[in-house]
User: What shape does this take?
Amino acid sequence: MNAANNTPRSSPNEPSEVEMLLPWYAAGTLNRREAAQVEAALAADPALAERLEWVRAEFAQEIYINEEAASPPDNDVQALFAKIDALPARRPGTVAASSPTLADRIAEFFAALSPRTLALSGAAAALVILLQAGVIGDIMFEERGWETSGVPANTPTNGSYVLIRFQPQATAADIASFLAANKLSIVEGPAGGGLYRVRVAETELAKPELTAIVNKLQNDKVIGFIAATE
Amino acid sequence: MNETGAAAMQTIADEVLIAKIAKGDRSAMEALFARYRVRVFKFVLRMVRNEATAEELNSDVFVDIWRQAGTFEGRAAVSTWIFSIARFKALNALARRTEDELDEAKAETIEDNADDPETALAKKDKAAVLRQCLAALSSEHREIVNLVYYQHKSVEEVSGIVGIPEATVKTRMFYARKKLSELLAERGIERGWP
Assistant: This one.
């Protein structure tokens, strides 16, 4: 049985695995096994080969668009180092890794959860994570400071912040809408486990107010994990 | 700027550069910037569609890298980490925009990238129409198309950058292409499905 027969298109809304791999085949970024699978399917299915020609056309035009688009200015490296030089000096010891701490282990825990695992972990796991949330944020900031769990010490400290990991299914537009609708701003990240530090207010809110905001935000479909931070 | 030092680092692996940057090595920072500045700029430009914003975001991405290099854990490739930072910078920028700015950016992109549909069809220039349709995709579809086609990112790498499962990467790309087919059909080009 050839690859095309192995991966039939059962309906127009259910593309075969091979068909979905065509863009990566055109870009040359499949591994050898997947590329061989696509090539076998192409040899057996003229219609698939025709679709590949369209993929190649898209590929060529996306390259064209980008090559024709503006490039960064020649002096951008000076602009970069001007920004770097304007940063507060690094605190000694904030860069070097130390022995694993509880915060490291928490970050490790989240990092170990693949997006799919988190997505499929279900309501019980989500509840556990949310119950831990208030504690985890405190631990991470009390024990070693945010800089060693992912974000440097010179992050702005005014305002109120939360840690967020977005749902893997959330699209760019979903997240942009969520940030805009709630007047939020990602200030740092991603840290270990895909956690972002997000400013929810420009002033330091009382704990009940911050908790209320977390409770409100955690119901949004884009949120996979959220925790208030001190 | 130490040009000799930066030049000597052109062949050094990304991970080594990051380790040097974590120790405050400016030549390593310069080398990494030289390696990625154009790709990151083009990526954020495709998302935000504004040169000035893209320029600002590009340097902000590398400032973050300078500040966070010590926390890089090597679970993913350096390039995946860099594009992941760039993506969220762009998302933040998009979230800050007003509707007027978005409309203006969209209009500028269409004007810059292609003829109007009638002109393009008159010239029987499928490529021009295809470019126009690629430019008209939504931000999440532009993002994935750019990562796959221009940035040459594998399924696994896109998954790491966008933060979605690999199966979702494939289906999102497929639906981006499906939308492209619909846009082409609206402009008189039928290519079957997608």
Summary: The radius of gyration of chain A is 23 Å. Chain A has two domains: 3-68, 101-228. Chain A has ten helices and four strands. The first strand of chain A starts at residue 160 and ends at 166.
